[in-house]
Structures are given as structure tokens and as C-alpha cells.
């Protein structure tokens, strides 16, 4: 009987680990592509602040997860947001990662001229009409980090459901992976594309489940609007 009781938690843990792996790798690639578009001497700074922002935002959203989930309609909105993430992941996987650049690859990519300089073509994200400024690159990453960190936390919460211990493990794991292994995961996902497809399937399932549960939640709390109709 204990093994039967443990099975739902193991399934939830498996989903959470897959989600954290895929989204940490995806976030690292965003950082790498933005870094590849700035001059070589400034790329380490962009990568550092990009990953630091992702870690801080994941910690912030993790700390307020309970309050977030208490907001009526956020589960539904989070499910819709995750579907958008799934669509972007599908397009990336379909192109076989041709334009993906991991952070360490950004450091090895050809240099690009300063913004406004002569055109040059680097690897992946390098721009054709001069490099992006450091400030613009960091801002681009931070904006992406806000969305991706929120996506990560909501996806983990959606997968963990009624297993608070799995939720905590998933949130801590998302922070650790982003801080310590994001670059390695980005390479892993690029080399073994099937991991990305498995992650995509799991996140799609979680998104649809969140939309279903969120819709029921919204209907339950708005039923009184139609009682007098």
C-alpha cells in the first residue's frame, strides 16, 4: 500500500525534474544568444548578470508561490502562458537548435563591432548591423527572465499539485540548476533533442491541466454573476 501511496509523488517529482531541466536549459540559451550579440570583452558581464537575474527572480517567485496560487484566475492565466512557452519550444525543437547559443559558446563566438560599427555576422544571435549594447542585452535578458522564471515556478506548482514537499524540491531544484548547471543543461538539450521533446510533452500536459483546473476555479468564483440571470 505504501508503494501505491508513493507513486503519485514519484510521478509528480519526475514531471518537476523534467520541467526544471528543460526550462533551465532554455533560459541559459536566451542568455547565451543575448551575450553573443555584444562585443567579446563584455560578454562575461552579460552572462553573469543574465544568470544572476534568473536566479534572483526564481527565488522571488518561489517565495511568493503560495500567494500567487491564491489569486483567482492565475492558474488559468499561467496555463495559457505555458501553452505559449510550449509553442516557442516546439519551434525551437523543430529547427534542431540551429540558432541556439549556450553561454560558453557565446564566449567563443566571433567578436562583433560596437553598436553603430560596420556590419559583421557572428554565431547564432550576433547582429548584422553592429553589436547590442551591454545595457540593452542585460535588459533583454531580464525581461525574458521575468517571464521564464514565472513560467518555471507556475509549471512546477502545476506539476506538484497537492504534494507540497515535491513543490519545495522543484522550486529549490530550479534555482540550483539555473545557478550551477544551466550551461551544461543547454548543451545536453542541444545534443539529445529527445529530452526537449519529452519536456515539451510534460509541460503541455501541465499547461492543459492548469487551464482545466483554472477554468473550473474561475467558474466557481463567478457563478454568482449568473444566478440572477
Question: What does this protein structure show overall?
Answer:
- This protein has a domain at 11-34 and 53-94 and 136-223.
- It is 77% helix and 0% strand.
- The protein is built from nine helices and no strands.
- Helix 1 (2-35) packs across helix 8 (193-222), helix 2 packs parallel to helix 6 (134-160) and helix 7 runs antiparallel to helix 8.
- The protein is globular, with a radius of gyration of 19 Å.
- InterPro entries: Integral_membrane_TerC, Integral_membrane_YjbE.
- One of its GO terms (cellular component) is membrane.
Which keywords apply here?
Integral_membrane_YjbE; transmembrane helix; mainly alpha; single chain
Strand content: under 5%
Strand count, sense and barrel status of the largest sheet are: none
CA radius of gyration is: 19 Å
> Mean pLDDT, nearest integer?
79
Identify the overall geometry: globular
